[in-house]
Amino acid sequence: MHTPSHFKIDDEKLIDQFLRDHSFGTLISAGSPYPLATHIPMELETNTQGNPVLRGHISKANPQWHSWASHPQVLAVFLSPIHHYISSSWYNHPNVPTWNYMSVHISGELSILTGEELKESLRRLTDKYEKESKNPVSLDQLPVAVQNQINGIVGFEIQINRKEASFKLSQNRNEEDFMNIITELKNSGNSQAIQLAEIMEQIK
Q: pTM of the entire structure?
């Protein structure tokens, strides 16, 4: 990922928190003739060796997993849902418009996850998203026939070899332009723009 120095994030804790908060991403791997991609949740976990990994699963009906044995190198892309157009009319000088966003790319090697490791990963995934439900579902309390649907998925674990993070939040603008952008975003009445402005205020 091309990341100008103004926008590059090296703080491991900040990157890891971003992955926990925005775990729905895009898994990209080799295909023929084009790369293959699937949009799925991928959770940041710790493996039995104490190393950080990404874990997830796809349907066995999805052909993407067929190439993993021969091409285990993958890219996982995570994008914050909070992003917005930035008009150059908000600057105090002529310039081009742009877009502000936050993204993390994870490059690594994928291996198949099976057995109890896969089931435990599914438990954690279910518990994470069910905790806000009025009547939370527990994986182990589901009927056996439903639990057996695990046979229809392919679990995976990605050994993380590289993390790249780009938080493009107008850090390269002068103070006047930076504050004007925040003001214009807030005045837009758009909830996503307002959220972006609040994030920009935090990094100031």
A: 0.92
